[in-house]
């Protein structure tokens, strides 16, 4: 997504969802991509692209016409950071060689299985940690830190 790395996509998506959740709790039905982009400090087009991915994952709904905007399709306590991660980064964190290394060489022959074990461990740990944190947890922490 236009120079935005995986970590920033997840962060911007979590920011957007948390912002929408707080906005809705304050009595608003929908939020516009322009409003969300102001909070994230990015272009509304970036926000719309991420929201489209989040909609596809069932985390937000969009409304057109009068009163157009975005709304959560699930409550914050039911959305984990893993849900957000999987919505915007559905593949593995690390990828092995896109081409087949030379199997006649020691490194080329053995690199994929060795790195694969390490990468699988990292992926498992990351997913477990992200699954432990809901966007409700994120919002609660933000509100406690607010001046």
TrEMBL record:
Residues in the signal sequence: none
InterPro entries, per database record: Tscrpt_reg_Rrf2 (IPR000944), WH-like_DNA-bd_sf (IPR036388), WH_DNA-bd_sf (IPR036390)
Domain of life where this protein originates: Bacteria
PROSITE patterns: HTH_RRF2_2
Gene3D superfamilies: Winged helix-like DNA-binding domain superfamily/Winged helix DNA-binding domain
UniProt xrefs under Pfam families: Rrf2
UniProt cross-references to PANTHER family, sorted A to Z: HTH-TYPE TRANSCRIPTIONAL REGULATOR YWGB-RELATED (PTHR33221:SF15), WINGED HELIX-TURN-HELIX TRANSCRIPTIONAL REGULATOR, RRF2 FAMILY (PTHR33221)
Protein name per UniProt: Rrf2 family transcriptional regulator
Organism listed in the record: Streptomyces lunalinharesii
